[in-house]
Predict the 3D structure of the following.
Amino acid sequence: MSAVLDIKNLSVSLPRGGRNVAILDGLNLTVKAGEMLALVGESGSGKTIASLSVMGLLPKKAKREGEIWLGETNLLTLQEPAMRRVRGRDVGMVFQNPLAALNPSRTVASQIQEAWLVHKGGSTRAARARALELLGEVGIPDPAKRLDDYPHQFSGGMRQRVMIAMALACSPKLLIADEPTTGLDPLIARQIMALIARLRRELDMGVLFVTHDLSVVEEHADAVHVLYAGKSVEWGAAKAFFDHPRHPYSEALLGSVARVGQARLQNIPGNLPEPETRPPGCRFAPRCAYHQPQCDAAYPPALRDGGTAAACLFPLPLTDRITYAETLEKPTGRNFASQLEVRDLQVRYAGNSGWFGGKTKLPPSLSEIAFSLGRGECLGVVGESGSGKSTLGRAVLQMIPYEGHVLLNGEDFSPLRGAAKRTQRRRIQVVFQDPRESMNPRIKIGDIIAEPLRLKRGISRAEERRQVETLLGRVGLNKEMAALLPGGVSGGQAQRIAIARALAAEPELIVLDEPTSSLDVSTQAMLLNLLKDLALEQALSYILISHDFAVVSYMADRIAVLNAGRIVEMNDTAKLIRAPQHSYTAALIGAAPQLHRL
Amino acid sequence: MAFSTRVPAMSEQIATAGGMAAAPFARWLGWISQRSTLVTGLVISGLILFIGFAAPFLYHVDPYAIHPAHALEAPSWAFPFGTDELGRDELALLLSGGFATLVVALPAAILAFVVGVTYGLASGLAPAWVDRLMMRLLDAVLALPSLIILIFFASLVTLNNTSLILLLGFISWPGLARLVRNETLAQRGRDFVLAAEQMGAGRVYVARVHLLRVMAPVLVVNGTFMVGDSVFALSALSFLGLGVQPPQVSWGSLLESALDIIALDPWWLILPPGLLVFGSLLAASLTGQGLLQRWGNNR
């Protein structure tokens, strides 16, 4: 097999605060024809910088050093016009958000043809024939009929297929896929992964797959390359990597992916160092469980005594596989005192109301929802986007109008008005998906956490301060953070602050609406563990809404599966996993990372 | 992508602050050049305010003293800005007119600002049918040509400073009200507002603590524009004889009386008041633009 892409000693630096800061440091990697290499790293690791370097799409002020060989050409020596000919012809690209990458005002045929016409010329008719062929190849049903459709007429997964078709128009030798499945529902994400994996074999094309999530690539990648803080920490064949990760960071990363049936996720303490404050020795050393004094001296050389190469002085032994404690034996059927009861809930959004008050009736977003939740219990709600799971959370929170009954501690919400309703509502708090969006960017963190205290009134400033500090401590943050604005903290920290604020209201139930899906894997693990501990400490109940079955199964005592606005199945977590009754549940479980696939 | 979503770390901010001390003058020049619009706007604003409020205390000449022997003289040492057809000192008139203009235009702008923001917030937070009613009312006000309405009412009431402030104030709030209402609708569904409501926050709290704060840039920028518009509207009214009433002069009325005798080519009577009205408008516009540049992207 010949190398399609050969990156030699690539370093990228960006000017920041008047200095040149190294973002990526001496990257070496090779992608062979027909091979899929997964470039894995958390945000800030430099993986996106690496992929943008290959495409020559870095900002002008970025400095690149080293060599990037695409076949016989060193891309770093090319000027922009020559680079433009390479892009799209020799290198295809697929990005995360297909809706943003497609032009909404042009048909998909014209957009797929474009790449062909720009690079190969020829007649529009030939290009259209090629577009038709490509749409079929990426698995769009009835492609001839869909050629003249617009992007908004396709679903998210289909749009990503169209993007892939565009990228493949000129049969590139290399496909760069930057988080192509992030933001897609798990079932759809699996299909896209399988499609890319099939196409690379059929077309003998190299794939550079950039992702933060190891579980996505587990099944299909041939090789893995893990980046941490701008440096390669471990690289080599995927099989060897997943069997015996050698670098402590790889192990921790694998351990923090939520898997169906897992007892405890592994925490990686601390944060990724900023480019300016990276330690001189091993960059992972400050967070490493196996840290030794020698680690801080210099960046460790690559050790190659196993299936992979790892930049570590004390790599993990080859003898044992990583093991995850299992909890399918989790005590089920615990007796919870009833706390929340939902009876015959239905939500129907009103359609566009016209000038004369005529409202169009839409089909209900939720119907016949009934369940009860015990004190200290965690109910998981899973389903695809559009299944109504967020609507369910909002109805319980009394944020939207609904029909039916929601009872908290036996008291029905529907007859409540004014202050009585407000007091009752306070007992249910919420944590949203995007922590930044859930905080006013112009209010200091201390004041954000104090907000529920102030709204309750009757608390002195000193007492308020003390409580804020206690709350910060309980979510594992230091009290100096109170003086910062939300823009100055990381996503994981911001989500902790959102949890602290919810706790300040002294809730009995917290609705967690996709609380970890905007976070990196290791951050996600930390947060889930925190939520678990908090629930035990004070008998908090949760409704955990997520599209990620593994996350829900890790947290929940009971799981409700939502499809098209109805609960299709609800059961204790262990029972549901062992014996799913509904085919849809089985498919969701199948798409989630499993303990025993390794 | 990685560049845009990155949040500057504390370490980075500290590093920048440290660098600032190293070469203060160069940094200061850079700061100015990056904000030339804002700085120019603020300098002109300061000048206009100085003319209106401070200068009368520095230039002690009675604007209403008549010197028939020196009627309609071009600028000289005795009369730095010349005299008008009655022989009054034009500089003293400009300064007095400036005070008369600003003392009405500024409160009028503040009144319009307060009414506009309150109306907009109330409409945006009210139930849908109230909102719709309030917006139709706003449409009705907006549909009427403001200058004509102004002239109509000005001819009905006795004109003094208070009535002028009320008139000008109540004619210029609808634009801001609509802006604030739309912004309110856009912001009230955001997660942090929902979270506050879940904690028991009412509408007034949400408006005061959350909405006003996230809208602060929009409000300040538009408030600045309103001051300029207000000066302009008052000058236009005075020009038509419906603004500040004689014997008190204003920039608009000075311009008007100069135009009566334009055949005599009294350039020193036309240019200064015209430039001052233009300068007020320019100052407000530049300051607003400058603030927009600074804040526009950081919402």
User: Anything to note?
Assistant: The first helix of chain A runs from residue 47 to 55. The radius of gyration of chain A is 26 Å. Chain A has a mean pLDDT of 87. The interface with chain B takes residues 14, 16-19, 43-44, 48-49, 52, 59, 274, 276-277, 397, 399, 422-423, 425-426, 428-430, 432, 434, 437-443, 451-452, 455-456, 484, 487-490, 498, 501-502, 505 of chain A (CB under 8 Å).
